[in-house]
Amino acid sequence: MKTKRTLIILLALRLFVGLFWLEHGIQKISAGWLVGDTLKPRLMQKSVSAHGAPEVYLDHFAMPNSRGLGILVALGELAIGLALITGFWMKPAVWGAIFLVLNIKFAFGELNTVQILGSSSFFPLLLGTLAAGYIDTGKQWTIMRFAPFMERFDVR
């Protein structure tokens, strides 16, 4: 049995990581990712220095579909943050977050280099998100406590 103190620490981790994702999603929505092609200039900048598989990915998939990808990224980050904060659909949200992080690192050519080992955000973000979604913080710390009817829709 976990102590109440441990549960509070785990809840704080889940809320912190959830707020991180939520804040990034809100920033992208505020910057116009839902209405404009805000992602394309970033992809074009990275495409100039990309080589190999990341270059092919950027030139033939990401840039032609940048408007739709921008919408998916902004809404995905928002959904991941809300899932972790509310404790609802956390595991699918974690896998979505891992996909987003790995996808951007691959597209920017950082996944297949030793640079990834020195990244100050890659491992903490992946491990923090994974821990936040998979470590049980108890039902008393989720939205199910206040809206028990939603439990039938949850994925555990």
Please describe what this structure looks like:
- This protein is mostly helical.
- It has one domain (22-144).
- The protein is built from 7 helices and no strands.
- Helix 1 packs antiparallel against helix 4, helix 1 (4-30) crosses helix 7 and helix 2 (39-49) runs antiparallel to helix 3 (53-62).
- The longest helix is centred in the first third of the chain and has 27 residues, at 4-30.
- The model has no long low-confidence stretch (mean pLDDT 81).
Compact summary:
The protein is mainly alpha-helical and 156 residues long.
Q: Which secondary-structure class do the elements indicate?
A: mainly alpha
Number of strands: 0
How far apart are the termini? 19 Å
Unreliable spans: none
What is the makeup of the main sheet? none
Strand content: under 5%
Tell me, briefly, the overall form.
globular
Q: What is the overall pLDDT average?
A: 81
The percent of residues in helical segments reads 55-70%
By DSSP (H or I, 4+ residues per run), the number of helices equals 7
Work out the count of structural domains. Answer: 1
Helix-strand topology string: HHHHHHH
Q: Give the C-alpha Rg.
A: 17 Å
Task: Please specify the SSE layout and strand pairing.
Blueprint: H1 4-30, H2 39-49, H3 53-62, H4 66-86, H5 90-107, H6 115-118, H7 122-134
Helix pairs in contact: 1-4, 1-7, 2-3, 4-5, 5-7
